[in-house]
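TEACHING EXERCISE
Course module: macromolecular assemblies
Task: Read the component lines below, then compare them to the predicted structure of the full complex.
Student: A.B.
Group: 4
Components provided:
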Amino acid sequence: NRRKMVSPGVGEHPLQYNYTFWYSRRTPSRPASSQSYEQNIRQIGSVASVEQFWRLYSHLVRPGDLSGHSDFHLFKEGIKPMWEDDSNRNGGKWIIRLRKGLASRFWENIILAMVGEQFMVGEEICGAVVSIRFQEDILSIWNRTSNDQTTTSRIRDTLRRVLNLPTNTIMEYKTHNDSLRDNSSFRNTKISL
Amino acid sequence: GTRIIYDRKFLLGCRSSPLAK
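Instructor-supplied answer key:
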């Protein structure tokens, strides 16, 4: 059930990779089993050029205007935003917790850095997620190989630069294996200053 | 191969292009 690959239109600026936007929402009381997660996640569309990116992105609700427990995901085409996907199973993610009111701006900056190939880590980046929650919002960027410290450090340093984070911002890394084990995306993380 | 790299300023500039509407 893979959708047809998109390609850049005439005169458009191609991206290094095609990306797919996804949206998910769940009732917080329901347990987040991987099956219910997959049922609650929807593809919005794919983009292959800068212009296609803006056409799609400009029509989406800003994440800061979403209510409840919802997420936007932007992943390389062909990679599902799930821990179990082949591209993700040995990977992990950097987590940045945001106070309310910052999600829209930080989400835009992180995805512009991703589609513009600012991270310089080869094929390592899988996608980015903004998670709207009740007390705080959470930004994360997923990479393929959680035990490659050169890569994860470079991603962390690029995040600091492109998001203009203060040097004392707490950043947390969590492997998808650990997320699977405790069935939680954001608990029991490894803190890095 | 060559990587296609765009900085934020360039990407934001493309937003107003008629092709991006």
